[in-house]
């Protein structure tokens, strides 16, 4: 059976502002290493899936960035969403386009902006996930073994039903749970049967289409209207007009939280979703005072800070637990415990009609 991949790359990476901007969001930046995050994602997948079978879902604004950064990706494999509508419509649209080109395939769905250090381990687990997904009508997800009580991730609770496939544990999923508070997250960590939701899913294309029809019938009807235009010169126009009718809903809420035959494979392969600036603490080396430093920096008595310069000298004295990011037109200064709330600044910029800083 053919294996295809769907990379979701339409996000703006707002919690990585001011480095991540509307015109150049996080997935197109070199956050770690000498390649952008989407280039790393493509290179990782090519160890298992041919580039002709890898698709990227994005919007018109980023199509040229993708063509520039991944020139060997077939142009037809860039799926343009006319408007952002969350992950369920993204998966739905990709599924019908993949069905047209690669019928009877198995889809791997994943974000464009995650870091995975052990790529060999990732591919080994992905092969097993594909094998499990190809058995009957199973939906499979990769769960990250939690190492601390993270409150910024959703979690997956597994049951005691565990199978061995290729020497890997494959757990039956009990339920998906939302981002917890700290006390709840600590309980999840100690229980041993909760995993971070990686947002990586594996299923047969026909199976996810079946569940969309059953659980999201309105979206199914929209997709069928789109399919009716396939093979005509109206295909793109119909997709563009019909897509606006799609629900703004996640695949987790629309499908995964309502299905019983879901399996999770626990993973330890150096994963990070790089969701905010504090991720740099986890994925970069720190100096003797716990600082992550990049660029032209002079620091004295500075501890546990993340500081990034765009060329201008940043001099610090006697500060702790701050994030300082200097770009050509914006300097961000915030405490680490507010890193998840950077979006509030963007909201205020819009309120004050300062959108040119976005």
From TrEMBL:
Residues 5-285 form the Nucleotidyl transferase domain. Signal peptide: none annotated. Residues 295-349 form the MannoseP isomerase/GMP-like beta-helix domain. Coiled coil: none annotated. It comes from Paenibacillus gyeongsangnamensis. It comes from the Bacteria. InterPro entries: GMPP_N (IPR049577), ManC/GMP-like_b-helix (IPR054566), Mannose-6P_isomerase_type2 (IPR051161), NTP_transferase_dom (IPR005835), Nucleotide-diphossugar_trans (IPR029044). CDD domains: GDP-M1P_Guanylyltransferase. This is Mannose-1-phosphate guanylyltransferase. Gene3D superfamilies: Spore Coat Polysaccharide Biosynthesis Protein SpsA, Chain A. GO terms for molecular function: nucleotidyltransferase activity. It holds the Pfam family ManC_GMP_beta-helix. Keywords: Nucleotidyltransferase, Transferase.
């Amino acid at each position: 059976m053919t294996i295809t991949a769907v990379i979701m790359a339409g996000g703006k990476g707002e919690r990585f502002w001011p480095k991540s901007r509307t015109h150049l969001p996080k997935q197109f930046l070199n956050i770690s290493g000498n390649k952008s995050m989407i280039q790393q994602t493509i290179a990782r997948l090519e160890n298992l899936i041919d580039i002709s079978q890898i698709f990227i879902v994005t919007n018109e604004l980023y199509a040229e960035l993708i063509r520039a950064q991944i020139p060997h990706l077939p142009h037809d494999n860039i799926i343009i969403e006319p408007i952002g509508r969350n992950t369920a419509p993204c998966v739905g649209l990709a599924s019908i386009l993949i069905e047209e080109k690669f019928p009877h395939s198995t889809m791997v769905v994943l974000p464009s902006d995650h870091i995975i250090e052990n790529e060999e381990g990732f591919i080994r687990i992905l092969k097993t996930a594909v094998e499990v997904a190809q058995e009957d009508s199973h939906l499979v997800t990769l769960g990250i073994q939690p190492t601390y009580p993270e409150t910024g991730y959703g979690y997956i609770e597994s049951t005691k039903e565990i199978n061995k496939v290729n020497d890997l544990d494959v757990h039956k999923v009990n339920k998906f749970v939302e981002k917890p508070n700290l006390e709840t997250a600590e309980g999840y960590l100690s229980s041993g049967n909760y995993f971070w939701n990686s947002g990586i899913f594996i299923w047969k294309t026909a199976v996810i289409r079946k569940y969309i029809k059953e659980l999201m019938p309105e979206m199914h009807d929209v997709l069928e209207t789109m399919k009716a235009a396939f093979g005509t010169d109206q295909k793109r126009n119909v997709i563009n007009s019909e897509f606006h009718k799609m629900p703004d809903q996640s695949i987790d809420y629309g499908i995964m939280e309502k299905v019983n035959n879901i399996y999770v494979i626990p993973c330890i392969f150096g994963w990070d979703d790089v969701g905010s600036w504090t991720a740099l603490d986890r994925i970069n080396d720190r100096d003797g005072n716990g600082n992550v430093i990049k660029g032209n920096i002079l620091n004295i008595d500075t501890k546990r800070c993340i500081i990034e310069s765009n060329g201008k000298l940043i001099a610090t004295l006697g500060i702790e637990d701050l994030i300082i990011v200097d770009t050509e037109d914006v300097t961000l200064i915030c405490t680490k415990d507010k890193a998840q709330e950077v979006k509030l600044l963007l909201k205020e910029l819009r309120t004050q009609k300062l959108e040119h800083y976005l």
